[in-house]
Amino acid sequence: MNFKQVVFDKDKEIKLDIYDADSDVALPGIVVIPGGSYKTFKERDAARVALTFLTKGYQAFVVEYPVNEKKNYQDAKQSISMAFDYITDHAKDLNVDTDKLGVIGFSAGGQLAAAYSNQKDTKAKFAILGYPVLTQALDEKIGIHSEDVTKQVTKNTPPTFLFGARSDGLAPYIDHIYPYTEALFKNNVNFEVHEFATGGHGFSLANQFVGVVNRDRTDEHFAKWFPLCLEWLQSL
């Protein structure tokens, strides 16, 4: 594996972390958008997710968007577009199959991933949303002005996989995943959703690999979202 970082905007601290599998053939690609309430990037949602996808034959990338005092929703959205533009422009050098390039976002990063997947010029062929924030319900708490991405879904939205936990009190199913899946269904978009009875917000892969940086929070049942997601990706 080779690691490389590309800086798009030094002042806004917009960067792309590249986890290169060092393959001699084009591989599927996954762009990871970590959560963290625009305060920080949660390691559980970032490098460890990228490395896990790397072991499954993906070229993996992590987007670092403006956080803390530089946080801005529109700038964060632009960060995702910059990342996809860079990857597709350098697909040959990065050995990425752009027909199998998608995005995964967690929590606040899930909102950004969903918003990008719904853009008319999106280059994401699929989207994976983990315990995502999909409305403006947390804007005041986070301190940003976002948008209700449940209203952006169209028939052109790419296939989407969603997962969360019934006990998620920060981004409740009824306020976020439910209205988004309803919009996907009404627009005849290919989707799969798993709302687990166990686990919670911010569990990421829910295994020991992320548990060691996530207050030892693991959940064997919730962790099944990952193999289920890989099966779903194979079906596309």
Keywords:
236 residues, alpha/beta, Rossmann fold, eight-stranded mixed β-sheet, 8 helices, 29% helix, globular
Description:
The chain is an alpha/beta fold and 236 residues long. It has a single domain (2-235), classed as Rossmann fold. Helices cover 29% and strands 23% of the residues. It has eight helices and eight strands; from the N terminus they run E-E-E-H-E-H-H-E-H-E-H-E-H-E-H-H. It has helices at residues 47-54, 73-89, 91-94, 108-117, 139-142, 177-186, 208-211, 225-235; strands at residues 2-9, 14-20, 27-33, 59-64, 96-106, 127-130, 160-165, 191-196. The protein has an eight-stranded mixed beta sheet with strand order 1-2-4-3-5-6-7-8, with helices on both faces. Helix 4 links the parallel strand 5 (96-106) and strand 6. Helix 2 packs across helix 4 (108-117). The longest helix has 17 residues, at 73-89. The radius of gyration is 16 Å and the shape is globular. The model has no long low-confidence stretch (mean pLDDT 96).
Q: What radius of gyration results from the CA coordinates?
A: 16 Å
How would a textbook summarize the main sheet? 8 strands, mixed
Question: Tally the helices: what do you get?
Answer: 8
| Quaternary structure annotation | single chain
CATH class assignment: Alpha Beta
Strand content: 15-25%
CATH superfamily: Alpha/Beta hydrolase fold, catalytic domain
Examine the coordinates and then state which fold CATH places here, giving the name of the CATH topology. Rossmann fold
Domain count: 1
Number of strands: 8
CATH architecture: 3-Layer(aba) Sandwich
Which structural class do you get from the secondary structure elements? alpha/beta
Strand order, sheet with most strands: 1-2-4-3-5-6-7-8
Q: Which regions have little confidence, pLDDT < 50, spanning 5+ residues?
A: none
N-to-C CA distance: 27 Å
Envelope shape: globular
Mean pLDDT: 96
**Percent in helix:** 25-40%
